Structures are given as C-alpha cells and as structure tokens.
C-alpha cells in the first residue's frame, strides 16, 4: 500500500497541476469536508430530541389549534384521530375560516360527540382588510384557547402516533417554542421520493440552525409554543399583510427577542403526516406560495441558506468535478466516496428514528432534482409573484 502511494505521487506530480486545477481541488475538498462535518457532527439525535419530563399534570394541558377552510373531508379523518390521543389534558379548537362545504355542520355534530372539541369562526370574507388568510383564523384560535401551551397542525395532516400531544407537551416543559417535524405521506413515485427528501433536508437544516441558536423557521403543520410568546411579539403584526409566514416569520420574530427558548423535537411519536401533492404541477404552485415568504428573510439569512443549498448541489455533482482532476481523480473519488458514505449512513439513521423510508442510493438524483426544481420556482417567482393562496 505504501509503495502504491509513493508510485502514485511519482506519476502525478503536484508540479504538473495547473492553477485552475488547484482551484477545483480546493473547492472539491472544501465541499467534501463541509458535508462530512454537517452530517457527522451537526446532525445528532440528542440535538433533535428533547429529554421528556414524564410527570403529567393539569398544568401541562395543551390547546390544539387548527385553521380550516373547506376542509370537510380532511376534518372527518383528523378529528377522530385527535380524540384518540393518549393524553388526558387537552382541547381541540377548530377555527372555521368561512367554509361553505359543510365544514361547520360537521363540526357542530362532532362537538356533540367530543366534549374536547371547540369551534370558532372568522368574520365574513368581506372583512379581510386587516388580515390575510390563515393568520386571522390562528389569532382567533389562540385567543380562544384555555391553556397556555399551544400545538398547531393543519386540517390535511394526521399525527403519526397517539403520543403526538404527549411528546409535544413534554417538549414544551423544557422550551417555550418547539420546532417539530411535519412529514409527507409515502407513495411509490419519483415525485414523492423527491419532495419527501426535500422536506427532510429542510427540516434537518432548520433543526441544525435552531440547535446552533439561529432558528429561522418551523412548519405550521407541526409547531408548538407557549401562548405568551404570541402576545410578547405582537402576534403576526410584523408580517400581517403577507399571506404566509405564520410559521417561519413568526419563529424569526421570536428568535430576535432576548433569550429565546427554542427547542427541536424530531421523533416518530411527535411527527405529523400531510397529504402529498399528486403532481409536479401541484407541488410547483405550492412551492411558489412558500417562496413568497422568503422575500422577507434578511439578506444574511438568504446568503447562508443559498450557500448551504449550493454546497449540497455541488456535493451531488462531485463525481463530475472529480473527472476534471485527471492528475488526482482516484484520490478525489476516494474522498467523495468517504463523504458520501457518511451522508447515506446518517440519513439512514435519521430515517430509522423518524420512521421514514428512503432509498438512500437514490438521494443524489433526488438532491439534484430538488435543486433544479427550486431554481425553476425561484425564477418563476422573480418573473411574476403569486396572486392568490394557490400559488398562481
């Protein structure tokens, strides 16, 4: 082996490497080291799970809040699931946002069956002037809540287990705000693999940033915080005229306060599962809507997110970069393979504790598709902003 290395460098003298190749070598090595550090040292189970306090008392009661507009069929599935939760002290508040599909009639009937269910309703659509979309409904639900601890999800989501409220409540004993994982349902299609990978990668990214004290987002389909936070930062007032942002911009507002208490709770018991888009077109318009919020991010945050996204993109392209280094192509592939091995082993481990299922060797392809898809959505939003909640 030693003789092989000696012969290798004799035949591949560093004096024969051009300046351009040195630049590529530097970029290549930096990418591999960045990925190894990211997945080996920053993504750890202990950083993403809060040690629970097993004591259960009425003081730990939770108000689950759901904003619903024309969600009749989804609520028929969700409400019974919530009532099956293995937790005694909770209420469910559904804010009917002026639905016309029979949602209100269903909720009135369900309230007779489930005493823990409470119903609110927004004002008529004609009076939306001071609020836009979901934020009014959430504000009404928060003000109607009986309990200090609030847990949020969407009508098209269901808890992965009957421990969802319990684990969320336990996490809120330690932190005032808890960022949780909202997954998508699993289907056998390339679209589903790609969007689920994008969802997991995004979650790991905001989880790492939160653990490092730089929280910048959570997901509204699975977010928990104490009610006093809402009033401390004046609710959604700083972004009230933006349709989205009830999760990420809200998290950013709280993160700017003095000594914010933000934890990350990623576990199979505390995750929710949402209905996945059925087509690339549907996902495209969904991402267009989501991307409108990023316009409100600080310049520094945009740079950090773009940098990390670019590193991941180049990592998946590393075999191509290696081919541009004819003098050291073998060593380049060895370094990339080592980084890739760390990457897939860590994702496999994360998938196991989150009860997710990924074909890890498919992830480079999925990663490239995610980057290209996001780029197309970004260009689309630059050309024309979405004019409604559907992203169109």
What can you tell me about this protein's structure?
The protein is of the alpha/beta class. The protein is 52% helix and 11% strand. It is built from 15 helices and ten strands. The protein has helices spanning 2-11, 19-42, 45-48, 72-83, 103-113, 134-144, 164-174, 190-211, 227-232, 248-255, 280-294, 299-316, 318-323, 329-354, 363-383; strands spanning 62-68, 90-96, 117-121, 149-152, 157-159, 177-180, 182-184, 223-226, 262-265, 272-274. It has a seven-stranded mixed beta sheet, with helices on both faces. It has a three-stranded mixed beta sheet with strand order 5-10-7. Helix 2 (19-42) crosses helix 12. The radius of gyration is 23 Å and the shape is elongated. The chain starts with a helix and ends in a 9-residue tail after the last helix.
Tags for this model:
single chain; 392 residues; alpha/beta; three-stranded mixed sheet
């Amino acid at each position: 082996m030693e003789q092989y290395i000696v012969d290798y460098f004799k035949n591949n003298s560093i004096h024969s490497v051009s300046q351009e190749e040195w630049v590529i070598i530097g970029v290549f090595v930096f990418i591999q080291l960045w990925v190894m550090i990211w997945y080996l040292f920053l993504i750890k189970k202990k950083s993403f799970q809060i040690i629970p306090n097993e004591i259960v008392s009425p003081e730990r009661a939770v108000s689950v809040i759901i904003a619903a507009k024309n969600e009749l069929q989804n609520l028929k599935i969700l409400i019974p699931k919530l009532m099956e939760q293995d937790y005694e002290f909770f209420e469910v508040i559904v804010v009917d946002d002026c639905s016309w599909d029979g949602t209100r009639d269903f909720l009135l009937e369900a309230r007779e069956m489930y005493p823990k269910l409470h119903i609110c309703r927004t004002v008529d659509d004609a009076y939306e002037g001071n609020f836009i979309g979901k934020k009014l409904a959430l504000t009404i639900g928060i003000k109607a809540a009986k309990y200090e601890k609030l847990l949020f999800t969407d009508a098209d989501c269901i808890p992965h287990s009957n421990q969802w409220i319990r684990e969320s409540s336990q996490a809120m004993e330690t932190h005032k705000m808890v960022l949780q994982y909202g997954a998508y349902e699993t289907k056998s299609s390339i679209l589903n693999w790609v969007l689920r990978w994008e969802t997991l990668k995004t979650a790991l990214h905001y989880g790492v940033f939160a653990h490092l004290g730089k929280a910048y987002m959570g997901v509204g389909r699975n977010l928990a915080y104490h009610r006093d936070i809402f009033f401390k930062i004046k609710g959604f007032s700083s972004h009230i005229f933006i349709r989205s942002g009830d999760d990420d911009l809200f998290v950013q507002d709280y993160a700017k306060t003095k000594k914010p208490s933000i934890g990350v709770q990623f576990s199979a018991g505390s995750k929710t599962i949402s209905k996945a888009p059925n087509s690339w077109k549907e996902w495209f318009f969904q991402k267009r809507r989501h991307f409108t919020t990023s316009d409100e991010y600080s310049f520094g945050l945009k740079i950090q997110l773009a940098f990390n996204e670019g590193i991941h993109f180049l990592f998946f392209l590393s075999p191509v970069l290696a081919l541009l280094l004819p003098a050291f192509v073998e060593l380049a592939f060895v370094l990339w393979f080592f980084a890739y091995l760390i990457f897939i082993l860590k994702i496999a481990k994360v998938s196991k504790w989150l009860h997710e299922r990924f074909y890890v060797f498919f992830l480079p392809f999925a990663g490239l598709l995610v980057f290209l898809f996001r780029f197309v959505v970004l260009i689309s939003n630059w050309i024309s902003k979405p004019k409604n909640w559907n992203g169109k």
